TrEMBL record:
Residues 62-145 form the Lipoyl-binding domain. It holds the Pfam family Biotin_lipoyl. The keyword Lipid metabolism applies. One of its GO terms (molecular function) is acetyl-CoA carboxylase activity. NCBIfam families: BCCP (TIGR00531). Keywords: Biotin, Fatty acid biosynthesis, Fatty acid metabolism, Lipid biosynthesis, Lipid metabolism. This is Biotin carboxyl carrier protein of acetyl-CoA carboxylase. GO terms for cellular component: acetyl-CoA carboxylase complex.
């Protein structure tokens, strides 16, 4: 097997994401190589392995699947929730005006509830997901114009 050149900057950024998000494990894959950074009780560890050929979870985006302009995309893999708790009104609805920093969704990842804030003010023109739906990194969630 050819030697895998470790990118110290990438590993440091991934470890920083663990601290920032409170996650205990993060995996990154590119060019057929996979890096998994996980946090134990007090020490972070990095393991590098060749990426296994895994079945695709979602079809590759085609030209017709372009991310809409103004879309907020999922910053992580998880389950999206449109309301703060079951039985309460959604954070936002189509037509609502939002301000920068306002919580518009929650994504649960590894039992951590991550608030997703509007990156800019505007009007919600589309909600592209359903409450309780699993989402992938980079998947469009809401369009704000």
């Amino acid at each position: 097997m050819a030697e895998f050149d470790l990118n110290d900057d990438l590993i440091r950024r991934l470890a920083g994401l663990l601290e920032e998000t409170g996650l205990t494990e993060l995996e990154y894959e590119a060019d057929g190589r996979r890096i998994r950074v996980s946090r134990g009780s007090s020490v972070s560890q990095v393991s590098v392995a060749p990426a296994a050929a895994a079945p695709s979870v979602a079809p590759a985006p085609s030209a017709g699947d372009a991310i809409p302009a103004g879309a907020i995309t999922a910053p992580m893999v998880g389950t999206v929730y449109t309301a703060p708790s079951p039985g309460t009104p959604d954070f936002v609805s189509v037509g609502d005006k939002v301000r920068e920093g306002q919580t518009v969704l929650i994504i649960e990842a590894m039992k951590v509830m991550n608030q997703i804030a509007a990156p800019r003010g505007g009007t919600v023109t589309q909600i592209l997901i359903d409450d309780g739906q699993p989402v992938e990194f980079g998947e469009p969630l809401i369009v704000i114009e």
